[in-house]
Amino acid sequence: MNSIKPVQIPRYDVYDMKLKELAITLLLAMGFCFLVGLIFYENLFLSAMLAMAGIFYIPIRKKEQLRKRKEVLNLQFKDALYFMSASLSTGKSLETALLDAHKALAGIYPDPDCDIIREFEIMNGRIMMNEPVEKVFHDLADRSGIEDIKNFADVLLISKRAGANMVEVIKNTSATIGEKVEIRQEIETILAGKKMEQKIMTIMPFAMVFFLKTGSEDYLAPLMSTAYGHVIMTIALLMICLGQLISQKIMRIEV
Q1: What pTM did the predictor assign?
Q2: How confident is the model at residue 3 (pLDDT cuts 50, 70, 90)?
Q3: How far from 98 is each of 36, 79, 80, 127, CA to CA, in Å?
Q4: Could you tell me if 127 and 136 are in contact, meaning their C-beta atoms sit under 8 angstroms apart?
Q5: Cα–Cα distances in Å, from 245 out to 31, 139, 223?
Q6: What angle (nearest 5°) sits at the alpha carbon of residue 124, between those of residues 119 and 128?
Q7: Among 243, 248, 234, 192, CA closest to 40
Q8: If you write DSSP's letter for every residue of 234-255 in order, what string do you get?
């Protein structure tokens, strides 16, 4: 067997945003908030204050990137199970199947920093140190927090203790995960149009205020030049943000 080089253990509960990405994300978020402030307040000081709210977008961005990373890892794990099942069906051991799956995955995911490639490097390295297969899969399940991987790790542990047919177990698990992925994709296709409508509805309030200001400046003048008007516009902004949060929760359907 080829020696497995040590790699850093990936974490899926923390998103390490690089300095360049952080700077660009912060600049865009603060710039957007500043523009919204100009539209709703026509006051540079209030707009600059609102621009500081862009800082709160950073944790939202990190959470969204973590969610996407886990979705990609789940898809990659489904492919890994397919290759493991194919290797086991030829009569090879589970440990050897992991090595074969690693080689096959490297062919379709050539990026060495790909999560599934790094995970299989870690698992194969630990197995070479005589750690049980079920233990390394449970470690991946705990670190990733992905339900499908956790379910597979539990099934694998029970199957090894009971002496079940590992080929059938992995094949059935792979099929189940594949069905869930297909259902998710179908849901995403159905919701694609609704998500576009949701984005348009989010932009519309800003567009309406902008057009009212440019078409009839006197119409919104009391809201732009008085403290009472600023309070009303702030409440309107908060309601728009609340509506955005609610719509995102409605659109996010877990399978």
Answers
A1: 0.80
A2: very low
A3: 52, 12, 8, 9
A4: yes
A5: 20, 33, 25
A6: 150
A7: 234
A8: HHHHHHHHHHHHHHHHHH----
Ordered by start, the domain boundaries in the chain are: 19-251
Query: CA nearest 41: which of 213, 190, 160?
Result: 213
The C-alpha atoms of residue 19 and residue 97 are separated, in whole angstroms, by 39
- Torsion angles phi and psi, residue 111, rounded to 5: -70, 120
Q: In terms of Cα–Cα distance, which of 112, 102, 111 is closest to 77?
A: 102
Q: Tell the residue number behind the tokens 């973590």, with chain if given.
A: 66
d(CA 185, CA 206): 32
pLDDT digits (tens, 9 = 90+) for 231-252: 888 898 898 888 888 888 877 7
Please name the residue ranges forming H helices in the chain: 19-41, 44-51, 57-88, 94-108, 115-128, 133-144, 147-162, 166-215, 221-225, 227-251
Do residues 4 and 137 make contact, with C-beta atoms less than 8 angstroms apart?
no
pLDDT digits (tens, 9 = 90+) for 86-135: 888 888 888 898 999 999 999 999 888 899 999 999 999 999 998 988 89
